Amino acid sequence: xxxxxLPAALGILLSxxxxxxxxxxxxxxxxxxxxxxxxxxxxxxxxxxxxxxxVGSDLMLGAGLSSTKSWSTRMSECLRAHFPGSAIIETxxxxxxGSWFAQYRTSxxxxxxxxxxxxxxxxxxxxxxxxxxxxEKHVNRQIEGILRQINRYRATHSTIMVYALTPELFEAxxxxxxxxxxxxxxxxxxxxxxxxxxxxxxxxxxILAGEIKLEDFTQDGVHPTDAGEKIYDEAIGQFIDAVLAAxxxxxxxxxxxxxxxxxxxxxxxxxxxxxELADVTPGWQCGTESPIKPFRHVLQTEKAGETLKLDFTGxxxxxxxxxxxxxxxxxxxxxGGAWKKVPARKPAEGFEMRVIPFEEMLGCDETPDDExxxxxxxxxIRTLGNGVARIGGILVNGTVADPYAGLNxxxxxxxxxxxxxxxxxxxxxxxxxxxxNTMKRLHDGGTxxxxxxxxxxxxNTLASQFELLLMRDYPRCKIEKIGSIRSSTGCNWYRYENRxxxxxxxxxxxxxxxxxxxxxxxPEAVRDVIRQVRAQMPHLEILFITPxxxxxxxxxxxxxxxxxxxxxxxxxxxxxxxxxxxxYFDMTAPWWQYIxxxxxxYGWFMGDxxxxxxxxxxxxxxxxxIYFDQTK
Length: 632
Fold this sequence. Notes:
Shape: globular
CATH class of the largest domain: Alpha Beta
CATH superfamily of the largest domain: SGNH hydrolase
Number of strands: 21
Structural class: alpha/beta
CATH architecture of the largest domain: 3-Layer(aba) Sandwich
Number of helices: 22
Helix content: 25-40%
CATH topology of the largest domain: Rossmann fold
Largest sheet: 10 strands, antiparallel
Mean pLDDT: 91
Low-confidence stretches: 1-23
Strand content: 15-25%
């Protein structure tokens, strides 16, 4: 049957089906359910939804290449070619130990290790290189656990699995058989509908066909040469074309419902536990600056005999730390058992991350449920000999007790703040000059509808729950706190296309707070927003808060001074607020002074490279409480 003899529309449709079927049945890749949600977000081109995060070996960084781009760069280029209007941002997370460590590194709901991997909507896993040598049970539980954790982080995620060439995989193809590792992974990919790209098979067939010699493809069996990478590029281009052709861009993303796990011992609760949740002896120093990334801070000591004790419920436990030429030995004991020595692994120079599995699959044969009562354990880690110990976190497949369980929200933030150095700050005496109605409402009672406009740092302000502190100070007033937030967005965006209607006016505020770190260092953009709002609500009282948190390179940190110099954004905003009769809070000054004098590194207060954690949020909340305190 010739497609050209059919009606045009039907012919095109059948052509697409025919081509897609051939592509989906390629000998070196499988499309399966594709990545339609990623296609939706790439096409949407919305801030915060353009991330592709790569997890795997150092191949993604182009290790061993002289001029050719890495396979991950090539994959991103192919995606951009299909979505030229999309501002795709790549994050790469190379790691040791393949999927064993990835099962901890990709888990959601944690902010320990110094990064948030699952931040975008497409995850690309290349774990074959690090997994060689693992047995079937470990590969199954680790790969399936990763896929389930990524979905739990965000149910609209898409995932791609890539298999790069290794000596073990090549020898299997050379012998004319499918490698066991590929068979194991493909069974899991089938179960979850995950697209897979078998670069190992594509490259092996080229080598075995004589199109390129093995030594010309790779010098060490793993890292491709520039010529080898070009072969990978061919496969990647075909794969991406097929994946994107297989499914239309959906009208909206669809949440993926996880099927039952394939394996009862699947490690789906792996996480990096903050060392702050452990009991430590007095010789340790919390919040010490780490000599390497991605750790934001480490637990450090130079004393032998110091211990860290953690109770957990689960099946696996391990350690992640920093090793240097000065590192000391450690030992650990599980459930009061014999001490097992963990010798230091001193690099020749500098520092490096070390990941150590202590105990795995505890009770899995009898009770695969890692929450079972019989899987409750205690791990104790102790320092030995001379040197420095730098602990980054504890690896647990399972759970640890919530130290704030049973507390209401106000009790919880009080408990967090109780462990911090108190904030000492004296606000300006005339700060309420342009807030008479707001202060009257707080004092006399009623409802205060408060709208906060800005970016994700304003999200941190909301998360501080400062309104609970204000309602405790002003018990007659009920505060309705409403966030109006767009990630990485400030007044230089809100000022255009009458966006203040949706983001401010429609929310009917009694009081407006503007802030964040994304105002483009442009006081006039903020002035424009203020004037647009006041044109519709002339009596609305407004407070502007200067930037807090963000990256070290940001101007308000890099060029910080308690009193802002002339020409700075802070000084410009003070002038604008005076001219527009708005309240002004230079939070930047006491905030950074507090962090500098706290005795801990900046990362101690951070949830990732930009945002505050619970401690950082309390700095914001307590400063706002002081600002609104009429007794100060």
